[in-house]
Amino acid sequence: MEIKTIHKLEKQAYKKSHAEIARIGFALFFLAAILAYSFATSGGVPNNLFLAIAAVFGGYMAMNIGANDVANNVGPAVGSKALTMGGAIMIAMIFEAAGAFIAGGEVVSTIKGGIIDIKQFGDDTDSFIWAMMAALLAAALWLNLATFAGAPVSTTHSIVGGVMGAGMAAAGINIVNWGTMGAIVSSWIISPLMGGIIAALFLLAIKKTIIFRDDKIQASYRWVPIYVSVMAWAFVTYLVLKGLSQIWGGIVNTVNNLPLVDVAAQSKPGFFIAALIGLMVAVLVFWIMKKSLSHNMPGMKNDRQSVNAQFTIPLIFAAALLSFAHGANDVANAIGPLAAINDAIMTGGITSQAGIPIWVMAVGALGIAIGLGLYGPRLIRTVGGEITELDQMRAYSIAMAASLTVIIASQLGLPVSTTHVAIGGVFGVGFLREWLDESNKIERQIDREKAEIRDDKKMLNALRNELKKLEKKTSKIR
């Protein structure tokens, strides 16, 4: 028996070691491809070797973000059994990469030029490049260590601290834009509060409109499509505002070429147009959800478990939305310093603003997706298992609150910690649960006391009746 057990353990260790070697090999292949591409395409440019090395650091940082931070997006969905690990990984990889490619530019500019005053480097391009490389490598190594230890930490904190520390080491304390740092730090305080409040409000709304109703099936049929439609509207509106801004002019010109059509030229879509497109998609989603629920209603039971099952699809949508928002927000942590280094090397100077090359964005987007696929499951299990007891409704509220908070932050160009936002959502749901449980305890106590009072009244009435009977008997005897 002992020999069989030892043999089984040896086989498991052998498989595990081979899987680990394969993961490391794939990661090294990705970094080698980045090195070769960046070095080959920048040939003839002075210091192009530094650019190639910086690109490797950026890819390394992006993989660590995918391995460590993405667990916050899909952990609740996996923990509540709404998604399998494989499904969660696939959804997160697709939407993380899409968010980074489509909507990552605004936050990149904040990381690149907002934390430190790059003018204080003067014409010392080399010091600036070294500072950005140090920031990237330090943040990536810290994230690698945290991932190895199974600790979900803030990638935003890591890179912001790295840029600030490297800048101070290179040019002194005055290089830090303390006003910008104050705004960023305040967003780290505000964002978990926002996440907690929004998550609590979502869960409270679900409980008030569905769970506390006598006919939960009919309430689900009425309200679940509304919740999903609101989420669809927010996602599509944001996507149009951010994702179509680069190609909106071409779309308008194409439409104007159609007969009897004349659309006012705009460089990017306005909020009204984006909201209108989002509304049309939301109406379509509402109709689809209604059809789906009407098909499922005959087999539903009027209990909490059946209601929970109706939130599986919305939770998957919420996880996808959060992954998109995370890709848009946190790609800056990997490619912000890399974009700054690329700009300094290509132009030979230091500028406050510069375009983000496609290949730089690709390094961040693909790196996050690859890191998630290779090393994400470990922390997804940690986050999904260690979060306070979750069901689909609670996990949906957390994911929805976190996604909306991160989207708002990305729209404003503020790099927030998705770890803080997700934790804020968990605390919001937890506090609401405690409050509702306490309220229910008080209500149950009041109900018990009322029942005791009613029983006492019945007993008193019975005693009165007995007393009256005795009085009648006594009067007859007399």
From TrEMBL:
Keyword list, A-Z: Coiled coil, Membrane, Phosphate transport, Transmembrane, Transmembrane helix, Transport
Predominant place of localization: membrane
A GO biological-process term: phosphate ion transmembrane transport
UniProt feature coiled coil, ranges: 432-473
GO molecular function: phosphate transmembrane transporter activity
Chain segments annotated as transmembrane: 21-40, 46-67, 88-108, 128-147, 159-179, 185-206, 226-251, 271-289, 309-328, 356-375, 395-414
Membrane-protein topology: Multi-pass membrane protein
Family per record: Belongs to the inorganic phosphate transporter (PiT) (TC 2.A.20) family.
Protein name: Phosphate transporter
Organism: Methylophaga muralis
Organism phylogeny: Bacteria, Pseudomonadati, Pseudomonadota, Gammaproteobacteria, Thiotrichales
